[in-house]
Specification:
- By secondary structure, the protein is an all-alpha fold.
- Helices cover 81% and strands 0% of the residues.
- The protein has two helices and no strands.
Length: 81
Amino acid sequence: MDKPNLSKSKNQRPQNQKQINEYVKYSGLAFQMAALILLGYWLGSKIDKWLELSIPVFTIILILLFLSVSFYSLIKSLPKD
């Protein structure tokens, strides 16, 4: 009996591994983005409570600040193609 041609599966394995690595990388960035936004919300609400502000000024500012930091991180991690 002839051995099956395994060259196709050998070439396909690195491509699948690359796709999995990219998926893990970008899903990790999504979790990082969510964590930064939640951190901004939590920290801002603590400052607003401490200063007894009626309008959540620091919450809004810190959410926007951490959102911009997370977008900057996302843009820096994109390939340069």
